[in-house]
Specification:
Blueprint: E1 2-3, E2 6-10, E3 17-22, E4 25-26, E5 42-43, E6 49-51, E7 54-57, E8 60-63, E9 73-75, E10 85-90, E11 93-100, E12 108-117, E13 120-129, E14 133-135, E15 138-139, E16 141-143, E17 154-157, E18 161-165, E19 171-177, E20 180-184, E21 191-195, E22 200-206, E23 209-215, E24 221-225, E25 237-242, H1 248-251, E26 256-258, E27 264-272
Antiparallel strand pairs: 1-2, 2-3, 3-4, 5-15, 6-9, 7-8, 10-11, 11-12, 12-13, 13-27, 14-26, 16-25, 17-20, 17-22, 18-19, 18-21, 21-24, 22-23, 23-27, 24-25
């Protein structure tokens, strides 16, 4: 995809953003081959972790496969490694779709639409089901401040709560007040959950240049992750917009209900600073 100074690449595997540049400078971390560390992929029908792969919805217990065995969690849903189908392609617009079925008890259709224009890359994610179904959404975005090293970059994000996680990366129930303003990434090691009152906008910059991530209505949760070994980069920063927190299927916190003929949509935009 191309428009003016912007170029973008959307991945059919995982349905997410593989590359986005402005005047040739990266706004997200890219990759070769398969998405490393869930880079850019869509997280649905839940983001983050579900404790023991077990939850109860409307009085019935359900099991989903554990794919994080070292912590015994079911992590990031079913579509992060799915091959999405191409619906529409133009130089400035791409639409993909995938369907979630077994072992998820509620068949759910997802449509991802990406549009590139002078304001940047906008994305809309729509979910629908034929009957009442639980649903939560996330996008595993790794930001790049025009290619600067993560440890030379700063993040501003108007979240107000830091939800503490245990050794399994599950919420403990403890909440701390937090301010993330011009936070030097060199000073933090995160795999942490934050909450704010949207709409939230993240600004990630180095020497005054970088990327802006605008999160639309319903994306009030953010997981932030600073791996030390992103391929080809070392330290990196994931800013993951989410509609619900870790372990939401167990706690019920902010889990949406998909009803017949009533799709739910989430939107976000990435642009250069």
């Amino acid at each position: 995809m191309a428009h003016g100074a912007y170029m973008a690449e959307i991945a059919s595997l995982g349905g997410g953003i593989k590359a986005l540049t402005y005047n040739g400078e990266p706004l997200v971390e890219t990759y070769e081959g398969l998405p490393p560390m869930c880079a850019g992929v869509v997280l649905a029908p839940w983001p983050n972790r579900t404790e023991d792969g077990c939850f109860t919805w409307r009085g019935t217990e359900h099991l989903v496969p554990v794919n994080e065995p070292e912590r015994n969690n079911a992590n990031h849903g079913f579509v992060l490694d799915a091959a999405w189908d191409l619906v529409y392609y133009a130089t400035d617009r791409v639409q993909l779709t995938t369907r979630i079925e077994e072992p998820w008890p509620w068949p759910t259709q997802l449509i991802a639409t990406y549009t590139l224009d002078a304001a940047g890359l906008s994305a809309r994610f729509e979910a629908s089901a034929e009957g009442p179904a639980p649903f939560a959404f996330g996008l595993h975005t790794y930001l790049s401040a025009r290619g600067a090293a993560a440890d030379a970059s700063e993040l501003t994000l108007p979240v107000t709560e830091h939800h503490l996680l245990d050794a399994r990366n599950l919420p403990t129930g403890e909440v701390e007040e937090v301010v993330v303003k011009r936070q030097r990434i060199a000073e933090v090691e995160w795999d942490d959950c934050f909450h704010g009152h949207g709409p939230l906008t993240a600004e990630y910059v180095s020497a005054g240049k970088g990327v802006r991530l605008e999160m639309g209505q319903g994306l009030d949760w953010v997981q932030m992750y600073t791996p030390a070994d992103y391929p080809g980069r070392g330290r990196a920063l994931a800013v993951e917009p989410m509609s619900a927190p870790p372990n939401a299927l167990r706690s019920g916190t902010d889990v949406a209900v998909l009803n017949a003929h009533q799709p739910i949509a989430y939107e976000l935009r990435l642009s250069a600073i």
